[in-house]
Structures are given as structure tokens and as C-alpha cells.
Amino acid sequence: MARILITSALPYINGVKHLGNLAGSMLPADVYARFQRAQGHEVLYICATDEHGTPAELAAADEGLDVASYCEKYHCIQHDIGRGFGLSWDHFGRSSSPQNHRLTQHFAEALEANGLIEERVDQMVYSVDDRRFLPDRYVEGTCPHCGYEKARGDQCDNCGNLLDPTDLKDPYSVISGSRNIEVRDTRHLYLLQTKVEGEIRAWVDSHPDWPQLTKSIAYKHLDEGLIDRGITRDLSWGVPVVRNGAPRPGFEDKVFYVWFDAPIEYIAATHEWADASDGDWRRWWRLDAGADDVRYVEFMGKDNVAFHTVSFPATILGSKEPWKQVDTLKAFNWLNWYGGKFSTSQRRGVFMDAALEILPADDWRWYLTANAPEGSDTAFTWEQFAGAINKDLADVLGNFVNRIAKFCESKFDGVVPAGGEPGPLEQALYADIASGVAELAANLEAIEMRKAAQSVRALWVRGNEYLQEAAPWTAIKTDPERAAIIVRTGLNLAALFARVSAPFIPFAAEKIAEAFGETYPGPWPTTDAAAELGKLPAGRTIRAPDVLFKKIEDAQIAEWAERFGGAE
Ligand SMILES: [Zn+2]
User: Fold this and answer.
1) Positive or negative torsion for Cα 426, 432, 435, 436
2) Distance 146 CA to ligand 1 centre (A)
3) Considering only CA atoms, which of 264, 313, 326 is closest in space to residue 95?
């Protein structure tokens, strides 16, 4: 039995996430976690909301809430939606937790003790009337390039030019509208990444097994050269900057930058889990407390790879403390909405809450896993989505389970029949199921999600082929013993499908398992297919499950294309 620590990139707190966020980190992490648990391994799957930073403050102001209440509200919303999708986190934490505050402050002190933190003076826009420094997005004014009057301090939405707040003409504070603003000096802490660049490169070099996408992004950033990075901001919402347990002089109104504290939350969320469950977080994270036999796997979209291969490792390596570091980093490309990006403001694409309103979680899980944006960006289309649900789930898996269970109900009173001996068709089936299950396990182990979905689908297809060839509806008229072994084998296949499909479609898998009197989630099948397909005891009562997968109709597609936007 191995110990496997799994984290998925932390969803930011500002509202409900879209399907791309689910497809590129949380869902594949969940599929992998469920598979490894079924293998009997000790798994800890950790995620959390990323709650600090300016966007959270802005979103809270938009809703008329203070930022703490806003984060509380959306943490609960994101948690409930994630559970609705069947995400089997062992803990879903919050980067605003006291545990993360302490740990973030600890890392900063360790880095400073190692000579890797320096105070530097920056120039920032200050609003006299608001009595605070303004982050880039809190300053608006007239674009020096195109004259647009509501250009943001970091970028002009009209012409797209990147800006510095000091470039703006007639700048004003977004908070109060005041134009009484000026540029002032402000001190910040800088993490001297340049001093640990060599160590980071050596660490990346020690992982030649990482996926190509991960390695190419890591080396791109290392080859461009690291820069020393400001890790504090003039904000009040965040982790306070301390020294020796007291507010750091000159930093009373500053907090750590969200990108510094967010990845530390992986560790802190484990600490939160331990505090809530009498667990031991150190044996997952500290090499001096038993974490050296942990395999740590991270899941994320490609935009997060640089932070996880360079920035966070700078914190970890720079601390010179024995922290567990990632072993396997699985990165995903983008899931697009037709040709373009998901967009909240333009109402393009399906967001996680709406997705669950219109269809069961398994439909989404299946489509997003079978079409995971692994090799390249992937475009969602309703047509492709409907095809995956109607063909794979309804016609192949649903039809198989329904057909064999209904047949057993009508011909054997819903009781697993005894009698009959396996013949050549069963022997051939055992061989194919054994190799198919092994291939599926290998693809899941390698975190090849598309291939894994193809493998599990191939098993479902093989079940249908078997039933077609064995034709129990013919055998029942001439050879009841033969019909009995076919039906028993078919029922066992359905029960086995519940076990191997559970990582992908846990809700349907549970329904199938229950209908066949099996525990859920069942253990992963062994390579002895003959034994696996003889597990259901003769005499057990089974029943056909309720409709497992509803087909998607053309009229629904038309309605959703209208509601969520589509091809343009
Ligand atoms: Zn402009």
C-alpha cells in the first residue's frame, strides 16, 4: 500500500467557476484519487479556495459585502457545487485560515533567516482621500494610447495595451472616485529568487519523467531568468506581515501577496484537515516526520505551471526545511467554449452551478474526462457533448446494464442463477477483460485521462459484444444451463463495470452497485478475470436500476445553445 497526496490547483474565490476550471484540475484529480483509493492505497486529496488579493476585494464590493463575508459565502458555494460534482476531497480548505496565516508567516521568516528576503522601496499610486495605496486595478483613468476614459491601471480594455497606473491621464480612485491621488514611496518585501535559481533548475532537472507540457513551461521560465519578486502588497485583506510574532515595523498596513500564500495553503489545508479529523499533517508534508514515502501528485491548468515549478519551489527550497515536494505535476491545456474562451461578463459558456441545474454530474464528468484538454486545447460543443452522453453512456453502458438486469428479472425472477459451466465465449471474455482492466489501470496510473476513458469504454463495448454473441434470449429456449452461465456472467460484468467506472461516473456506478447488491465503492478488480466474473453469488436478488442515463434531445441542445451561447 502506498501513500498518495493529491492536490488540485486552488479555485479563486471570486464567484462560481466554469467547466474549464473543473476539467483542467479538480475533476482529473478526483478521478485519480478515486482510482488510487480503489487500489487500496492511502490517499489524501486536498483542495481549497484561494481567497486573498485584490479581485476578492473588488468582487466583494460589487456584491456589497465585506470581503470576509464574501469569501465565507463563496467558499460554501464552491464547496457545495464541488460536492455536487462528486469531488471527493478529503478536505476543502480556505487560504484565509489561521493555519495558512501562521504557515505563510513561518515561511517568510525562514526565507529571511536564510538571507532570501530584502526590503525594497517601490513607487505606488496613493489615494489621499481613501488614505490607502491603490492596487493597479483600483486606479482608472484615460488611456494614453486610445483616449478611452475608463482604462484600468494594469490594462486598457478598449485598445488592449498593458499599462502602468502612472501612465494614465486624469487618474482616479475606483473606490471613491477621488482624483486626489499621487505617487508615493512604499516599502515591500522581495523574495530573492535569483539566489535560488540554480537550486530550482537542479530540482526540475531531477524530474525528467514529468509530462512534456510541464517541463517545457518550467524551462521556459528558467531560461528567461528569474527575477526577485515582491511578495507583499498594500492591502488589508490577507496574511499580515510579522516579525518575531508582532506586526513588522513599516508593514502594519500590508499583507503578503496572494501568490505567495496561495500555494502554501496546500500544506495549511492539510493542517486544517488534521485539526478537524485528528489526522497528522506532518506525515504528509515533512520528510522528517514520515513524508519521505509519500507520492505527491499535483493537478493544474497550464497557466499555473510556472508558479508550481518555479515560484513555490523557491519558497520551499529557500526555506531549507525538509518539506515534501511534488513528484508528478500533471498540467492541462484549455477547455474552450466553441472557438473562444469562457467568459462570465459575456455570458459565454456553462458554469459549474448551471451545469448541475440542467444535467447530472456524471454526464459532465464523463464528457470532460473523455475529452480532457491533455495534448492540446479542446473546444466544447453541445453536439460533441450530446454524442458522448447518448452513445457512450446511454447506448453502451446503460443499455448493457439494463438489458442483462431486465433479462434476469424476466427469466430468472431477478435472482443470480446457478448452474452452467464457462465455455469458449466466456474464456475469450476473461482474457479480454483481464487485459482491458490492466490497460485501464495503466492509463489511470499514468494520468492519461483520455486514454483511460477510452479503455473503460472499450470494456463496456466488450460486454455488449459478449451478450450479443452469447445470446441468452436464444439459449433460454434450448439450453437453460447455458442461459444460466451467460446471465450470471453478464450480471458479474455489470457489477465489475460499476467498480472500474466509479472513478469516472461515481453516481451511476453507485446505482449499478446497489442494484446488484454490491458494496460501493468496491475494490479495483484483480487480474484474475474468471474469479472477478464469478463473484456475484448464485441466489442473490438483483434488480434493474432506474434509468441510468437519459439521452440528450435535439430540442434541449437548441435551448441550451440559446441560454449559454454557442457558435458565433
Ligand atoms: Zn486604450
Assistant:
1) negative
2) 4
3) 264
Indicate whether 182 pLDDT > 70.
yes
DSSP tag of 85: T
Distance of CA 157 from the midpoint of ligand 1 (Å) = 7
**Dihedral, 404, 406, 410, 412 alpha carbons, nearest 10:** 40
Residue 521: count of CB within 10 angstroms of its CB: 18
Residue 144 CA to ligand 1 centre (angstroms): 7
Residue recorded with cell 492541462: 332
How far apart CA 432 and CA 71 sit, in angstroms, is: 51
Are the C-beta atoms of 370 and 453 separated by less than 8 Å? yes
CA separation, residue 533 to residues 287, 325, 471 (Å)? 42, 41, 18
- Which of 151, 175, 176 shows the shortest CA–CA distance to 165? 151
Cβ distance 291 to 324 under 8 Å? yes
174 CA distance to ligand 1 centroid (A)?
17
Give the integer Cα–Cα distance in Å for 193 and 505: 43
Determine the Cα–Cα distance for residues 272 and 91; give it in Å rounded to an integer.
Answer: 8
Q: Are 138 and 175 in contact (CB under 8 A)?
A: yes
Half-sphere exposure of 553 (CA within 13 A, CB side): 4
Quote the ligand 1 centre to 143 CA distance (angstroms).
5
Name the 3-class secondary structure at 321: coil
Q: From ligand 1's centre to the CA of 140, what distance in Å?
A: 12
User: What's the pLDDT tens digit per position in 467-513?
Assistant: 999 999 999 999 999 999 999 999 999 999 999 999 999 999 999 99
Angle among Cα 44, 49, 52 to the nearest 5 degrees reads 135
Question: Are the C-beta atoms of 552 and 389 separated by less than 8 Å?
Answer: yes
Query: What is the phi-psi region of residue 131: left when phi exceeds 0, alpha when psi lies from -120 to 50, beta otherwise?
Result: left
pLDDT band at 157 (very low <50, low <70, confident <90, very high): confident
Q: Which of 334, 348, 342 is nearest to 560 (CA)?
A: 348
Amino acid identity at 274: A
Spatial neighbors of 277 by CB under 8 A, at least 6 apart, are 91
- Count of residues in the chain: 568
